[in-house]
């Protein structure tokens, strides 16, 4: 791949977010797991957004309590850093993910729709 390590990390982040939005959660998890910001190249905003994605993935993959705690912690960290826009993004992501997760669970609990024909 051409580009700096930072560009590669940013590309992985974009691909992970796209996979999540398209419902490809396993792929999103894999891509997010490949992002290594141990050297601090990513901006605070990019680090927070990938961590928000990781929290959302925890929720949709069934680890709801961990995902909620992770997203709440991120929102508080963003607030402490006086970045209210990112804090709001973390809270919004939490609400949207919980809502979508509840809808999906509710749909899977419904009995199959009848065809309207008897017997």
Number of strands: 0
What does the overall shape look like? globular
Largest sheet: number of strands, sense, barrel closure: none
Element string (H = helix, E = strand): HHHHH
| Mean of residue pLDDT values | 86
Helix content: over 70%
Structural class: mainly alpha
**Radius of gyration, Cα only, in angstroms?**
17 Å
What are the low-pLDDT stretches, counting only 5+ consecutive residues below 50? Answer: none
Put simply, the count of helices is 5
Strand content: under 5%
The span between the termini is 60 Å
List the helices and strands and how they pair.
Layout: H1 5-21, H2 25-33, H3 44-60, H4 64-80, H5 84-109
Concise summary:
The chain contains 5 helices and no strands. The protein has 119 residues and is an all-alpha fold. α4 packs antiparallel against α5 (84-109).
Explain the overall architecture.
The chain is mainly α. The chain contains 5 helices and no strands. The chain has helices spanning 5-21, 25-33, 44-60, 64-80, 84-109. Helix 1 packs parallel to helix 3 (44-60) and helix 4 runs antiparallel to helix 5. The longest helix has 26 residues, at 84-109. The N and C termini lie far apart (60 Å).
């Amino acid at each position: 791949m051409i580009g700096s390590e930072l560009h590669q990390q940013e590309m992985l982040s974009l691909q992970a977010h796209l996979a999540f939005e398209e419902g490809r959660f396993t792929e999103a998890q894999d891509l997010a797991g490949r992002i290594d910001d141990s050297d601090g190249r990513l901006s605070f905003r990019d680090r927070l957004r990938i961590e928000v994605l990781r929290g959302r993935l925890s929720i949709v993959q069934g680890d709801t309590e961990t995902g909620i705690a992770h997203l709440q912690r991120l929102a508080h960290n963003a607030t402490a850093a006086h970045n209210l826009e990112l804090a709001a993004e973390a809270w919004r992501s939490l609400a949207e993910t919980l809502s979508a997760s509840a809808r999906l669970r509710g749909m899977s609990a419904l009995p199959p729709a009848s065809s309207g024909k008897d017997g």
